[in-house]
Design a protein that fits this description.
This protein is an alpha+beta fold. The protein is 32% helix and 24% strand. It contains nine helices and 15 strands. Magnesium ion is lined by residues 177-178, 244, 246, 290-291, 293-294.
C-alpha cells in the first residue's frame, strides 16, 4: 500500500517495503488553503517505517505522538522473537511463559483468523519463517528436506492457549502477520485517549485512520501496483477505518529467476502461490485487517473473497496475477475505490 520509492533490491537481498507512508504524507499535504496541517513524525520500527500523523495543537501533538511511538516500541519487544528476552524468544527456548495482556490479545486475534481461514493464517509458522530468513533480512532458499522436517514439527505443535503454557517443548510462534496491526490499534487508542481529534497511524501500509480529516472529512489511501510498487493500482477513500495490505512485492528475494516472498503457505511451507499478488483488507480494527490480509493472500481469490464477505465489517481489494482487480460487495457505498495505473484491468 502507498508508494514505495525504495531502490530496487540487489539480487539475494530482501526487498523491504520501505516508505509506504509517503503517499499518505503527500495526500495529507494536499490540504487546501487555510486547512490545518497535521503534525507528523516518522520512525523506523517493527521492520518498517512508521508514520504517526495527527491534527492537534502542536504541544499536545508532540507529547501524544511520542507516547504512541513508545507504546509501539514496547509492543515490538513483546511480539517479536528477535528480542532475546521477549516472550516469543523464551517460548522458542522451551521456557514457560504466561500468555497474558498484549501477547494474549495479539494471539487471540491471530487465532480467530486462523480458525476462520482453516489455518491459512497460522501463528505457528515461526520455524519456517526463520528457515526462509525473510523476516530477518538474511533470506535463503531452504532445501526441500529442511522444509519437510519443519512442516512435520509444526504439524505436531499445539499452540499454547489459555492463560499459561507449561514450557518444555519449544514453541515456534510467529506473530509477524498480525502484530503490526495490533500496534497500530494501540497507538490510535492512546492518541484518542490523549484527546487527539483525528489522524493516521501508518506502519508500512498497515494503517488506521481516526476522526474526521479536517477540511475534507475523508482519508485517501493509495494501493501500490504490485508490478511497479512506486506507482498506484488505485486509491481508496475511507472514513474512520483500518487498512492492511499483504503482497508478494513487499519483501522477497529472487534465485534462479524464481521469486520467493514472505507470505508462506502453511500447507506446503513454501511462499504462497495462490494467484494473488496483493490483498488489501479494510476492517474496523487494524489487527483484524492485518491478519485477514495475510490469510486471504494464502487462500487465493475464491476462498479469500468468501472469507471477507463473511467477516462482519471487512472489505477487500484483491489484485490477481493477471492484473484483474476484485472488490468485495461493500466497496462502492461509503468506501470508494478508484483504479489507476496501466496494468490494472477491470474486475473479472
Ligand atoms: P507485512 O509484514 O509485510 O505486513 P503480512 O502482514 O502479510 O506482511 O505478514 C507477513 C509475515 O507474517 C511474515 O513475515 C511472517 O512473519 C508471517 N507469516 C508468513 N506467512 C504466514 C502465514 N501463513 N500465517 C501467519 N503468519 C505468516
Ligand atoms: Mg498481515
Amino acid at each position: 500500500m502507498m508508494t514505495d520509492t525504495a531502490p530496487g533490491p540487489a539480487l539475494g537481498e530482501p526487498r523491504l517495503s520501505l516508505p509506504l507512508c509517503i503517499l499518505l504524507t503527500a495526500v495529507l499535504a494536499l490540504t487546501g488553503c487555510g486547512e490545518p496541517r497535521p503534525y507528523k513524525e516518522t520512525r523506523f520500527m517493527m521492520g518498517t517505517l512508521v508514520e504517526v500523523s495527527v491534527y492537534a495543537p502542536e504541544k499536545a501533538a508532540v507529547q501524544a505522538v511520542s507516547r504512541a511511538f513508545d507504546r509501539m516500541a514496547q509492543l515490538e519487544r513483546v511480539a517479536h522473537a528477535g528480542h532475546e528476552d521477549s516472550p516469543l524468544a523464551r517460548l522458542r527456548r522451551g521456557e514457560a511463559v504466561v500468555l497474558e495482556g498484549d501477547l494474549a490479545r495479539i494471539l487471540e486475534a491471530g487465532m480467530a483468523v486462523a480458525r476462520a481461514s482453516s489455518g491459512a493464517f497460522d501463528p505457528a509458522m515461526g520455524e519456517l519463517v526463520d528457515l526462509w530468513g525473510l523476516s530477518m533480512d538474511r533470506p535463503r532458499r531452504p532445501s526441500d528436506g529442511e522444509i519437510g522436517e519443519a512442516l512435520a514439527r509444526k504439524a505436531g505443535l499445539a499452540l499454547p492457549s489459555g492463560a499459561c503454557c507449561p514450557g518444555g517443548a519449544p514453541v515456534w510462534m510467529d506473530l509477524g502477520g498480525v502484530a503490526k496491526g495490533y500496534a497500530v490499534d494501540m497507538a490510535v487508542e492512546l492518541l484518542v485517549d490523549a484527546g487527539v481529534a483525528s489522524g493516521v497511524v501508518n506502519a508500512g501500509g498497515d494503517l488506521r485512520t481516526f476522526g474526521r480529516r479536517p477540511g475534507r472529512g475523508i482519508w485517501k489511501i493509495g494501493i501500490q501496483d504490485p508490478d511497479s510498487p512506486q506507482e498506484l493500482a488505485g486509491v481508496l477513500q475511507v472514513g474512520q477505518l483500518s487498512v492492511a495490505t499483504s503482497g508478494d512485492y513487499q519483501r522477497y528475494f529472487e534465485e534462479d529467476g524464481v521469486r520467493y516472498h514472505h507470505i508462506l503457505d502453511p500447507a506446503t511451507g513454501y511462499p504462497a502461490r495462490s494467484g494473488l499478488r496483493s490483498v488489501t483488507v479494510l476492517a474496523p480494527d487494524c489487527v483484524t485487517a492485518d491478519a485477514l490480509a495475510t490469510a486471504v493472500f494464502v487462500l487465493g481469490a475464491e476462498k479469500g473473497m468468501k472469507l471477507l464477505e463473511g467477516w462482519p465489517g471487512a472489505e477487500g481489494v484483491l489484485i490477481k496475477e493477471d492484473g484483474t482487480v476484485l472488490l468485495t460487495g461493500g466497496i462502492g457505498d461509503g468506501i470508494r475505490f478508484e483504479r489507476a495505473g496501466k496494468g490494472i484491468r477491470d474486475q473479472g
